[in-house]
């Protein structure tokens, strides 16, 4: 049965491969990108490779929460329901601030954008018999040491460390949303995290590791597994009956991992993060 699937950050890398493979399965796939010309080209390539004409695109700058809201509005104007939302977009970033929302870039793109999109499109997911939210995390979350007095990540100077913290926050928010839906008796929408592993994309090559470390990264890039391996878990979580009904879990290589790192976790911290994200996103959740 064909599903309506929305994938953010899907004009290249893991997102594009995920979109292509899910289109090959006969699904209606909507890719998100920042550049319209690139998005159009990607749609044409996916349609050709998948022999599926049900591929479309949405454009949004996910650093801006107002743009996230506009993208959700455009989706809802055209579609009644959503079966799968894959929050794939994310990055390791040097610069820390956008003037639009006064939010640190890593926090805006990696944490708040998927948080807001999940909230905005939840009514559409609830109309699916098997709604699935897949949030992209990373193994780098295991080294994260968040300062809970700096949830906007303004004090942390390392882009790599900000990234790891943001991916830990993605896990906490995913766990919280999964639990909230269960409490509300919404059993037809699941929320899980996916870790792609270290794969050869251009994802982190512009991070602020210094010249030597960036050169090492570029050399290592050619030694890493192909991006196809990184897409496997997303494809699995979006399409497999094996995970139907499973929620609040963390997956890597199509396997449910026992637990993400817990040394920094407390229920109070999870709630504090959730409340912060809800407060920042509240203006965009009002009717």
From TrEMBL:
InterPro entries tied to this protein: NAD(P)-bd_dom_sf, SDR_fam
Pfam families: adh_short
Any one GO molecular function term: oxidoreductase activity
Transmembrane segments: none
Keywords: Oxidoreductase
Entry similarity comment: Belongs to the short-chain dehydrogenases/reductases (SDR) family.
Protein name, as recorded: Retinol dehydrogenase 13
Lineage, broadest ranks: Bacteria, Bacillati, Bacillota, Bacilli, Lactobacillales
């Amino acid at each position: 049965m064909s599903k309506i699937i929305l994938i953010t950050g899907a004009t290249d890398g893991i997102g594009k491969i995920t979109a292509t493979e899910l289109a090959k399965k006969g699904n209606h796939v909507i890719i998100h990108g920042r550049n319209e010309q690139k998005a159009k080209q990607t749609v044409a390539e996916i349609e050709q490779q998948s022999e599926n004409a049900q591929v479309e695109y949405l454009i949004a700058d996910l650093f801006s929460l107002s743009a996230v809201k506009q993208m959700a509005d455009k989706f809802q104007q055209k579609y009644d329901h959503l079966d799968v939302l894959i929050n794939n977009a994310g990055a390791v970033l040097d610069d820390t601030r956008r003037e639009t929302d006064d939010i640190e870039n890593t926090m805006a793109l990696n944490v708040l954008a998927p948080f807001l999109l999940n909230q905005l499109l939840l009514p559409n997911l609830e109309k699916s018999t098997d709604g699935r939210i897949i949030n992209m995390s990373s193994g780098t979350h295991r080294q994260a040491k968040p300062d809970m007095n700096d949830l906007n990540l303004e004090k942390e100077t390392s882009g790599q460390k900000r990234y790891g913290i943001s991916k830990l926050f993605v896990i906490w928010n995913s766990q919280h949303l999964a639990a909230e839906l269960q409490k509300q008796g919404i059993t037809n929408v699941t929320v899980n995290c996916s870790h792609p592993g270290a794969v050869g994309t251009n994802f982190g090559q512009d991070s602020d590791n210094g010249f030597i470390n960036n050169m090492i990264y570029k050399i290592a890039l050619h030694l890493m597994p192909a991006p196809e391996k990184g897409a496997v878990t997303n494809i699995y979580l979006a399409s497999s009956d094996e995970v139907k009904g499973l929620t609040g879990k963390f997956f890597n290589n199509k396997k449910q991992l026992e637990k993400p790192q817990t040394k920094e976790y407390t229920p109070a911290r999870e709630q504090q993060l959730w409340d912060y994200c809800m407060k920042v996103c509240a203006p965009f959740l009002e009717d």
